[in-house]
């Protein structure tokens, strides 16, 4: 699942689940929407990404490249080492700013509500 949020200067993509070949059908529409918004900063929140393959990396690279051509920047936040490695192997890590200060919120809190 990919959600798009905007502010006057920023577009934020929040990605949850797998970012891979199985999800590729939605990539062109999302890319067109992001490019059409013409914001200078694209923030890609990957806190809830469970897996990314080279198809997902190519999608992120195309978004970053489109932004760079317009003079913008793309920030990855919540990206784990495995995902950064995929982008590095693709030779594209330099297209991104990596937000190493961001801390992802816990995905769920478990409580035990049973009474003994």
Automatic annotation (TrEMBL):
<dbReference type="InterPro" id="IPR036513">
    <property type="entry name" value="STAS_dom_sf"/>
</dbReference>
<dbReference type="InterPro" id="IPR002645">
    <property type="entry name" value="STAS_dom"/>
</dbReference>
<protein>
    <submittedName>
        <fullName>Anti-anti-sigma factor</fullName>
    </submittedName>
</protein>
<feature type="domain" description="STAS">
    <location>
        <begin position="1"/>
        <end position="91"/>
    </location>
</feature>
<dbReference type="Pfam" id="PF01740">
    <property type="entry name" value="STAS"/>
</dbReference>
């Amino acid at each position: 699942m990919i959600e798009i949020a905007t502010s006057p200067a920023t577009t934020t993509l929040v990605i949850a689940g797998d970012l891979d070949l199985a999800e590729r059908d939605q990539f062109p529409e999302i890319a067109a929407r992001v490019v059409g918004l013409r914001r200078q900063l694209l923030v890609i929140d990957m806190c809830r990404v469970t897996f990314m393959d080279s198809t997902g990396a190519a999608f992120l690279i195309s978004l970053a490249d489109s932004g760079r051509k317009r003079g913008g920047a793309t920030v990855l936040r919540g990206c784990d080492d495995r995902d950064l490695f995929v982008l590095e192997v693709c030779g594209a890590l330099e297209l991104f700013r990596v937000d190493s200060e961001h801390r992802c919120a816990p995905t769920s809190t478990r409580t035990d509500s049973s009474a003994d």
